[in-house]
Amino acid sequence: MPLNWKMGGLLLGAVFFAAVLLVKPIGVSTQFVILDGIVWNAVDPGVVTSSPDSKSGYTSSNAYLNKSGGKYAKSVANPLNYSFVFVIAMMIGAAVSAVLRGGVPGSERDMPAIWRANFGNSLIKRYAAAFLAGFIVLYGARLAGGCTSGHMMSGMMQTAASGYIFAAGAFLAGIPIALYLFRKEA
Amino acid sequence: MQQLLLALLIGGLFGFVLDRIGATNPGYIIKMLNLTDLHLMKTILAGIGVASVLLFGGLLSGLVDVGHMSVKTAYLGVFIGGLLLGAGFAIAGYCPGTGLTAAATGRWDGLVFVLGGLLGAAAYMGSYAWVKSTGVLEEIAGGKTTLGTVEGSGYPALMEGVSGEAVGLAVGLVLILIAFALPRSLTGGRAIEPAE
User: What pTM did the predictor assign?
Assistant: First the structure.
């Protein structure tokens, strides 16, 4: 049972405000790139190298990691940075909350009830859809330069034009697709 | 070191709240997007509104350092990326943050979503040079723009000369009002919990 929306909205708003008050606006999706970079650099050292000529002090053979003066390359080289630790802490916070409320019921752990009602119990089907969706979501988030946290919440909170443009795109696609896919109620 | 402690504190709180508002449950996300239960939509709108009012109130009172604002650039890819994210959001019921937190609460489909996400992010890293060559990353609407002019932020405004702080407060209040006005369901579907 989720918190009533008034209390939930107040808490959510307070956290987004605390982030910008104390450090900077919340964002999540960049850290998928940083983790990819860390893994890639571990397998193939030399993807990220230190460079005194670069603005961040680091450079990468990958054009994306190297953009904006190598700021992503720097985070790959130094994973103990604010944004990466933030995302790990976010996962710990959610896990603690879930444990305190008694955990996610076993029947929900593989797929939500509304998925079962519309597509049946097949694990392969659900996992294939989740994997594909993850691919599309993160490709889209990186193309957009942010996700639900960075663009929609943090962006709209700051009245950023980019935040509204992103939210328009997300709901313009999300609502019709959800209406089409999920016609049966759980 | 202080930065890392703040990351642990704010990140931890964020994850805790995401779980408590039901955002780690893909069922609630899907029911929001297929309009059968707008409870989470009300929470999100209220959350953005509250954050906006606090931020712009804080800027006006001098509590918040305007240098902490970080406005992202507007370009066509923001919209296209939004469409892609929205599509996957509807299929799986996860976005990047809620996928990670859902996986952390023990949802296996959340973990699978995250693995797909890591591959999607890698695909973007691989195709970045091509994406850039198409021109969809060229800025539009003035780039890093806000609605009004926020004093000292250095960001251009869509409504140059209009107080960005006043606009921010007003937009925040409007979002909170929309959260109140929005019905629990647009389809007459069964709600997650009885409306208060």
Answer: 0.96
Question: Using CA atoms, how far apart are residues A26 and B70, in angstroms rounded to an integer?
Answer: 10
Contact at CB, A93 and B46, closer than 8 angstroms: no
B34 to chain A, minimum CA–CA distance in Å? 5
Q: Do B113 and A153 touch (CB under 8 A)?
A: no
Parent domain of A164: 111-186
Q: ipTM beyond 0.90?
A: yes
Asked whether the predicted pLDDT for residue B195 surpasses 50, the reply is no
Judge whether A152 lies within some domain. yes
Q: Is the pLDDT of residue B142 over 70?
A: yes
Question: Which residues are bridge partners to B139 per DSSP?
Answer: B75
What residue of B is the nearest CA neighbor of A132? B116
Cα(B55)–Cα(B58) distance, integer angstroms: 5
Q: Is A82 domain-assigned?
A: no
- Structural domain contains residue A169: yes
Sequence letter at residue B63: L
Number of compact structural domains in chain A: 1
Establish if A67 belongs to a structural domain.
no
Strand partners, A49: A59
Q: What would the pLDDT profile of B76-127 be if each residue is shown by its tens digit?
A: 999 999 999 999 999 999 999 999 999 999 999 999 999 999 999 999 999 9
Predicted local distance difference test score (pLDDT) of residue B188 = 67
pLDDT digits 0-9 by tens, B32-50: 999 999 999 999 999 999 9
DSSP string, A7-54: HHHHHHHHHHHHHHHHT-----THHHHHHHHHHHHHHSTTSEEE-TTS
